[in-house]
Design goal:
The chain is α/β, with parallel strands linked by helices. Among the domains are: 3-16 and 24-163, Rossmann fold (3-Layer(aba) Sandwich); 407-505, GMP Synthetase, Chain A, domain 3, CATH 3.30.300.30. The strands form six sheets. The chain has a nine-stranded mixed sheet with strand order 2-1-11-10-12-13-14-15-16, with helices on both faces. Strands 4-3-5-6-7 form a five-stranded parallel sheet, with helices on both faces. The relative contact order is 0.09. InterPro entries: AMP-bd_C, AMP-bd_C_sf, AMP-binding_CS, AMP-dep_synth/lig_dom, ANL_N_sf, ATP-dep_AMP-bd_enzyme. Keywords: Ligase. This is Long-chain fatty acid--CoA ligase.
Length: 508
């Protein structure tokens, strides 16, 4: 399926049904269909050929998301560009992807002005919500007629991996990849009736691709233009939201919000969490206070969203009690994905042994754009390499113990940072945390914890060390504890351990 086909499928179930809602205004499926066809016609009229790359630089916005379907109808390739990136990174991505057209919001005009001069292949700029010198306004751009161009290949989108570990790579995702992800979503999680999906997290990332299964069922997508936890709770109640997605850091903010316990969340069928490990302690709290609707997903850009799944029912035992032993897992491998654990020299390991998590199946990307060397490295031995260390338990649940690069070797022992973080998050005063290894003359590396405390909390480092030691032993207990007012985060809310490491290693 093309990306536009999800919209068309939803429209076939009722063209007058609500499709995109923002700030109390709603576009029907028929209206979004018509607009996407006119966007496609305008792209073709401005010289965009099948297979060429079209970028969108926008915060959450219904018109920007409609452009995704217009790009698909023009047989072009969607390139989401995160507006939170630095100008240099976005310039690098637009150059790497060879984008010929850029849709952007007026608020990002200074960023566009900063980078456009170094991108000669970027021939058409379109401001979707204002007048910007050197760019077409929306009224001047959009065509009056509708067009739908047959696809030339299966590449649907190219997504940047981010530049925190060097030059960013462009992940080529095909229509088949996204169709597999959509099928797994519909197979693995509860959907009853027409869903109502609330998108707070950026539509350039996980929150965006989760729209496709919702559209396939004729559901409504409620788009939040800016992240606001209080408004998030209000919208769940007002729109009778059935599905939503948040990374763990935002769920922690939901749990801390004063309005949570007075908000009617009874409409929720599935509250997805993912993109980073979640504290088992906070997850148990969410299952009680938000409801038995939490659903985990584990994936990565190269194998979007659904390498493994933990639907709401799997958080509980048959008698209805919480299955504590599963809360720190990433669920079972998804139905259309084969997952294994690989050791050295490509050897596959038995259950219970730790190694790199590797994946096969039609969920896995077509490769890295213009980077055959990185593609070959990621697919060594015929498996996609995730870079995550984990194991499969006797019941088939996948446990992720660390990123390979985040393992700490202290006193000759391997210490997985996520295990220490889970122990730290069980402390009632810890809001969030990160564990890294720092050079140490005695230990080789010392386990170092950086904490963000709950508002008003105060703890001593010795108390934290003793707390962790009691739970997982002295070897894994942090030998250095730092308390910071906040942790550095990426544009999608992930804690940046590289920034923490740089800060702690820098001379005072």
């Amino acid at each position: 399926m093309r990306l536009a086909d999800y919209l068309d499928k939803g429209a076939s179930l009722g063209p007058d049904a609500p499709c995109l809602t923002t700030d109390g205004e709603t576009l029907s499926y028929a209206e979004v269909q018509d607009l996407s066809g006119r966007i496609a016609a305008a792209l073709v009229a401005h010289g965009v050929r099948p297979g060429e790359k079209v970028a969108i630089l926008s915060a959450n916005d219904p018109l920007a998301f409609t452009c995704v379907f217009g790009i698909s109808r023009a047989a072009a390739v969607w390139c989401p560009i995160n507006p939170r990136n630095e100008a240099a990174e976005n310039q690098e991505l637009l150059e790497l992807f060879e984008c010929v057209t850029l849709f952007f919001q007026e608020r990002f005009a200074p960023l566009v002005q900063q980078i456009r001069g170094d991108l000669p292949q970027l021939s058409t700029l379109v401001c979707i919500d204002g007048d910007v010198p050197g760019a077409l306004s929306w009224e001047d751009f959009v065509a009056g007629h509708v067009i739908d161009v047959p696809p030339v290949d299966d590449v649907a989108m190219i997504v940047g991996t981010g530049g925190t570990t060097g030059r960013p790579k462009g992940v080529m995702l095909t229509g088949t990849n996204l169709e597999t992800m959509t099928a797994i979503t519909l197979m693995s999680y509860p959907f009853e009736g027409r869903p109502v999906y609330l998108a707070l997290a950026p539509l350039t990332h996980a929150a965006g691709v989760l729209c496709f299964p919702v559209l396939a069922l004729g559901g409504e997508i409620v788009v939040m233009r800016a992240p606001d936890v209080g408004q998030f709770l209000e919208l769940v109640e007002r729109h009778r939201v059935t599905h939503t997605f948040l990374p763990p850091t935002l769920i922690y903010m939901v749990l801390a919000h004063e309005a949570l316990d007075t908000t009617d969340l009874s409409s929720l069928q599935c509250f997805w969490y993912g993109a980073a490990p979640m504290s088992a302690t906070r997850l148990e709290e969410a299952l009680v206070r938000i409801g038995p609707v939490m659903g985990q997903l584990f994936g990565q850009t190269e194998a979007p969203m659904m390498i493994s799944t933990l639907p709401p029912r799997d958080h509980f035992r048959p008698d209805g009690s919480i299955a504590h032993e599963r809360l720190s897992s990433a669920g079972r491998p998804a139905p259309l994905v084969t997952v294994s654990i690989m050791g050295d020299e490509g050897a596959l390991l038995p259950r219970g042994e730790r190694g790199e998590i590797v994946v096969r199946g039609s969920l896995v990307m077509a490769g890295y754009h213009r980077n055959p060397e990185a593609t070959a490295e990621a697919s060594a031995y015929g498996w996609h390499h995730t870079g995550d260390i984990g194991y499969l338990d006797d019941d088939g649940f996948l446990h992720i113990v660390d990123r390979a690069k985040d393992m700490v070797i202290t006193g000759g022992f391997n210490v997985y940072s996520t295990e220490v973080e889970q122990a730290l998050m069980a402390h009632p005063d810890v809001q969030d945390c990160a564990v890294i290894g720092l050079p140490d003359e005695k230990w080789g590396e010392r386990v170092t914890a950086v904490l963000q405390l709950r508002p008003g909390a105060n703890v001593e480092p010795a108390e934290i060390t003793a707390f962790v030691k009691e739970r997982i032993g002295s070897i894994k207990a942090p030998k250095q504890v730092e308390v910071w007012p906040d942790l550095p985060r990426s544009k999608v809310g992930k804690v940046l351990k590289s920034d923490i490491r740089t800060s702690l290693q820098s001379p005072a």
